Automatic annotation (TrEMBL):
SUPFAM superfamilies hit by this protein: Flavoproteins (SSF52218)
InterPro entries the record matches: Flavoprotein-like_sf, FMN_Rdtase-like_dom, NAD(P)H-dep_reductase
Domain NADPH-dependent FMN reductase-like: from-to ranges: 4-147
A Pfam match: FMN_red
Protein's recorded name: NAD(P)H-dependent oxidoreductase
Species assigned in the record: Massilia pinisoli
Taxonomic superkingdom: Bacteria
Amino acid sequence: ATRKIAVLVGSLRKESFTRKLAKSLMLVAPPTLELEIVDISQLPMYNQDDETETPPVTWTEFRGRIREADGVLFCTPEYNRSLPGVLKNAIDVGSRPYGEAAWTGKPCAVVSNSPGALGGFGANHAIRQCLVFLNMPCMQSPEAYIGGVAGKFDGDTLKDEGLKTFLQQFMECFATWVERHAD
Ligand code: FNR
């Protein structure tokens, strides 16, 4: 059986390295995973006052997309040693109404990156803090902190063969992880 994976990208900019990395992960993933980027750019900032009988349609659609996924792959840059607000907002939107979080129980993995040397370690673990509360089994190992990301691409093409091999292994482990926690 194939498993549907929602891919979240924590950067909105056009030439985002995070999005390039996410697309590279999708390309090397085993065929049992059906990966799709779920857009988070149109989600209004979470406001509990809008949690009425008719919440913003973008929230409802996003929650639906997460609910129908078998797993989630978080790809993120690091902003001020933490996760970007846009990704935190998506996590918050998907976590409500209280008791009806779309995330609950979904197996997931986190890939962080940075042009810098630390590979977004702070962002990676800030996300994991949310995942504990959301009760999402998060793959512990392998970890993915992709440093020096600006030098890894030729346009949109991943040119670093070592990184490509690592991403492939990462996605194989993730497929196993999803299978173990599915249903
Ligand atoms: C950054 N950047 C950054 N990098 C890092 O390694 N650690 C950090 O804490 C931060 N903080 C930070 C804050 C803000 C507000 C911005 C805009 C940027 C740099 C960041 O890694 C770089 O801009 C990446 O290219 C962003 O990822 P995308 O957009 O290429 O996916």
